[in-house]
Amino acid sequence: xxxxxxxxxxxxxxxxxxxxxxxxxxxxxxxxxxxxxxxxxxxxxxxxxxxxxxxxxxxxxxxxxxxxxxxxxxxxxxxxxxxxxxxxxxxxxxxxxxxxxxxxxxxxxxxxxxxxxxxxxxxxxxxxxxxxxxxxxxxxxxxxxxxxxxxxxxxxxxxxxxxxxxxxxxxxxxxxxxxxxxxxxxxxxxxxxxxxxxxxxxxxxxxxxxxxxxxxxxxxxxxxxxxxxxxxxxxxxxxxxxxxxxxxxxxxxxxxxxxxxxxxxxxxxxxxxxxxxxxxxxxxxxxxxxxxxxxxxxxxxxxxxxxxxxxxxxxxxxxxxxxxxxx
Amino acid sequence: xxxxxxxxxxxxxxxxxxxxxxxxxxxxxxxxxxxxxxxxxxxxxxxxxxxxxxxxxxxxxxxxxxxxxxxxxxxxxxxxxxxxxxxxxxxxxxxxxxxxxxxxxxxxxxxxxxxxxxxxxxxxxxxxxxxxxxxxxxxxxxxxxxxxxxxxxxxxxxxxxxxxxxxxxxxxxxxxxxxxxxxxxxxxxxxxxxxxxxxxxxxxxxxxxxxxxxxxxxxxxxxxxxxxxxxxxxxxxxxxxxxxxxxxxxxxxxxxxxxxxxxxxxxxxxxxxxxxxxxxxxxxxxxxxxxxxxxxxxxxxxxxxxxxxxxxxxxxxxxxxxxxxxxxxxxxxxxxxxxxxxxxxxxxxxxxxxxxxxxxxxxxxxxxxxxxxxxxxxxxxxxxxxxxxxxxxxxxxxxxxxxxxxxxxxxxxxxxxxxxxxxxxxxxxxxxxxxxxxxxxxxxxxxxxxxxxxxxxxxxxxxxxxxxxxxxxxxxxxxxxxxxxxxxxxxxxxxxxxxxxxxxxxxxxxxxxxxxxxxxxxxxxxxxxxxx
Lengths: 327, 532
Prior knowledge:
By secondary structure, chain A is of the alpha+beta class.
């Protein structure tokens, strides 16, 4: 049987050579993402701004303006409506009543149910969320904290274990991934809720995974080829791991594509964010974190110094290590 | 490390078998699982987004607790000094800025007053502090300040009682497997799966259910009462269903009997077939009620719930049997709810819903189906791709992934973890990343072959070199997962649980387990060439 090989043997692409172009494009895209987020803002879900979200399912695809005017007649505040892929499902967002606490929100849901039910027989509410302003503030805080801590924790891990350049380049690359994902949500105005924070954290995790594999190969080659030029060494490492990078990206795309197409509308935003994250994360492994190592002045000798400091015996070895049981 | 002794193979495979076995109950119907012994009932719980149901986050107001304590203290001080013996005359009682202060009329008695009040304060938990500080200011004014330790202690015990009361109320509703947990200092999470309409639940949790019986002050001037002014010793309370169309009524401050003296409450009907609540007092409550009603025949008394008058019936004759009826403008449903609330006792503090998420059962079922379809398609697509790329070794990886999925379910069952919709996403993602470890190994084997190593050596090196990379990559991944678990709420947590379990099990199945398979193949077939 002839096996599938996505990357031919002995592929040698000069990634590092292109890095100045790529840095420029990366900076441009990052600036665009930040700018769009600042200018247009994110379409934050009720998780983060507080309020009432009702997902209504109609018997027949309703006329959205009629739904809007029906709710406007109730005088429960300004509604914002959105249709999902299924034209019978409408998401209704309302502000939370300012007074009256639990009972008041309840009353709004009940009044909306009755009013919509009278005009559109057979309408059901498949789910609804109410989040008070206080709780939504905490959710925002925890979400941002989680993403930041994950990034910092991982950067510290790779700094302590290896040279500082790895920590910095990884941190910058992940920051890039997060900014791009957030920018994607600002551009598309897809709803940004707690699920998306989970997606961002997963992108961070996946992207780290990808960078660790390449970084690990760079370190291995640094030990192997003491005299090699750093640019050539990084090109070699990236090319050597390229088959794996492509293979894993393809399996992820297959899995996430299935989730995007068949996973139902609740998970669609999540799958879209993750899918984007796979592309962004793979790109940043090569063009942000690996290429940045050159610009940060990492040399094969730097690895030697650290190695000698920690485990003197291992620094003497040249060639593939045979003690794979490193903890 | 390709030589595995028989006992080692057993040691590697045994945990996987246990994991798979623990996953089995999750696929069986309820009735079959109930017949299994307890240690085999390792089922994955479905989150509310999958089973449908309501999630409520209730918050108690700390200020409310503090205010109530101060009111109680004021009452105790009045009782102790004015009614105690010898009587100490006090005036200007006021509670402002969270402090209680009063003036002792005779400056010579200030010390005696303080002496009498001190025993009213108590130790605040194990902090060594009192719950109130008593000081004398300006030689005749006594100031009682609650300490923060005292307030914290009071909030803590109020929350414990509130959690218990909520549990009783929800149990009385007959709902299935509710989860009621205290969260943080002053919040309670209530999760009720399969609940269609949480309105009834929220109404039930929304009422404090503080029930009081007080005499109506018939001497009060109706015009004054309408203005909200009541004679000394009386107070004006809202009375929405007042037949006289004035929505207020004046009642005596003194409580005849309160809800604490109840032993039972049930919904019933009066002679006009109107829904009512029948209540039964305990011994002392029944005696008190009988005594007051005997002394006040032909006068009205007020039934007060949470500070609002429900009704003010006339006492036609002494009520001596220890039971009574609460009438009001009830429907059968609301009467039943009040009965439940009264049976479970009053909430020590009012709770408000700060977060609610309700998912209809239909959407939950749709989500499960969609998640299942997506998972199956993902597995098939990834498996086909792996087979096309790595042949025999692709099959090994696929077996590992299949086992991995079952083991994750098994571990979740053992831990009693909950599978949520983002958890399903975590599953699909785990399928994607689990093969990454195998991809790393196989690509390394390909590389080693290209460098001219023999079959056995290439496989050995492939596993060895890739293991290090896999370890590094998964540690960092686990850091991200751990942070999600600790800091994340709701969906993030559900996702992180699956992710973390998946990281642990996938390293085991993808590295250790496939190595056993590869070693077996090498030993039995002694291949001279590998197609990878």
